[in-house]
Amino acid sequence: MYTIGIDLGGTNLRIGVFKENGELIEEQNCPTEVEKGPEYTIGIMAKAINSIKNKYQIKAVGIGAPGPLNPHEGVIIEPPNLRGWVNIPLVKILEEKTYLPVKLENDANAAALAEAKQGAGKGASSVFFITVSTGIGGGFVLDGQLVSGAQGNCGEIGNMIVNPNLDAYQGLGLNRGALEGHASGTAIGRMGQERLNITNGAQGVFQLAEQGNETAQEILDEVVNYLAIGIANIVHTVNPEIIVIGGGVMKSQDLILDPLIKKTKQYLYPSLKAVLNIKPALLDQKAGLIGAGLLPN
Amino acid sequence: MYTIGIDLGGTNLRIGVFKENGELIEEQNCPTEVEKGPEYTIGIMAKAINSIKNKYQIKAVGIGAPGPLNPHEGVIIEPPNLRGWVNIPLVKILEEKTYLPVKLENDANAAALAEAKQGAGKGASSVFFITVSTGIGGGFVLDGQLVSGAQGNCGEIGNMIVNPNLDAYQGLGLNRGALEGHASGTAIGRMGQERLNITNGAQGVFQLAEQGNETAQEILDEVVNYLAIGIANIVHTVNPEIIVIGGGVMKSQDLILDPLIKKTKQYLYPSLKAVLNIKPALLDQKAGLIGAGLLPN
Predict the structure, then answer these.
(1) What pTM was estimated for this model as a whole?
(2) Residue B79 CB: number of other CB atoms within 10 A?
(3) Which of A242, A282, B186, B267 has minimal CB crowding within 10 Å?
(4) Do B154 and A239 touch (CB under 8 A)?
(5) Mean pLDDT of B82-96
(6) Which domains, from first to last, does chain A contain?
């Protein structure tokens, strides 16, 4: 028996076929073409699933998609990254079109499952995955099982308040002083524009910091500090064996990851500091697809 | 088959006998007499267990004790509330003295298990328990199982940073702006002393607030705000079905619980706000003992 995993992104639609052990054996990609509406994209998904069904014995389909969504009801609510998808009962539609059980999850949760099972968290009893990219998201895997949350919102750490004295940024939905508003790639880019007068986003800030620019370094210090507060808060809340961090912002390991580990330790109880285990994600762009393929297991 | 539950507190030692369904059928209490040292108290525990063994068929013993402790190794590390207990291998000693399997957990985790199984969280798929008393602690129960944490520190939310611009208080171990330093009973008492010049602790602040004193009300508003940030951060991290709040500070329901629910909603995503479920704890002083009795199940 095999599973199908689908990574439904705002730009790309990735579809993979997986062995029951989670090994990806076939993959196809195409543009999501979100401007053509959900019916069009769902049609492509159904067609691909039914075509794969002719070749493999498929047990079920897993889909990772941008939130907000309701995994228990299988409904995509209204993701900023899938414009035009409003209250789409994706699971019901696909189950009717393919006669297969379909499971839907938040894309960060799917990525968390992949990193816990096959990536940097492999073998750990509990893994908290954090992705720092345009936004900030995460997911929690305990004893090999994804913790979805009562409303499927486990890991929505972008909205965690790390300093209530700061402003709200990056969309009306976020709290004042939310982690995502002050430590995401978008936040770094905004600070670059405000303080350095540059318009090339987080990348520009990283470049200047590497060249020794003090203001750029201050921005990164601030970001590292808020990420450290966020991680320490997670550790004191669920005490995972390992924290796995992925996303574009984490690629600059010297500038972010090493100082982040050091800073996080300052915020932990001694017994937790001694065993803090923060690792960079291993699966990168593939995490969402692999996680989707693991969802039905 | 029965279990024995022991609530090892700094002042009182409670020992209960439980049916396998968690029903408490017999209870005995005595002072811990911590000044006589761990050997004395452990002796009393062993004697009580062996005496109960003559009457009931006992499967195992569960103990809830103040942290820090290591539940995986069964060692009490150095709790401020059990002066003189330093690196005591309690599980090993008691197993040797009683020939029964013994399980040790943090007292807040034990209370969380009790509230999830028999208290305000009964029937919920996931319960996050918070106790606001002299200190602030908590515990997380998922699908009926206590989430202990990789180092047994799940639920150590007293050290969660809710405002990094604030000071560190209440013991050197806490972070600057930690929840416990700014929202515990001790914190309320300290603010009463600083701003109202009263010395009768949190109780004094509650009394003045009830009489319409504005400064006392401001203190409580501040405390409610930090508790709300803490709860919202927990909800965005693990999205439990229900939050159960206990501890002495929560007894003033009108002054704390109702405003707290209202404030927490301000910090949640709309989909989470709509379903927020915060309930006062039901088991009160008994939670620790009942949870200890449930630990071996």
Answers:
(1) 0.96
(2) 21
(3) A282
(4) yes
(5) 96
(6) 2-110+286-294 (3.30.420.40), 123-281 (3.30.420.40)
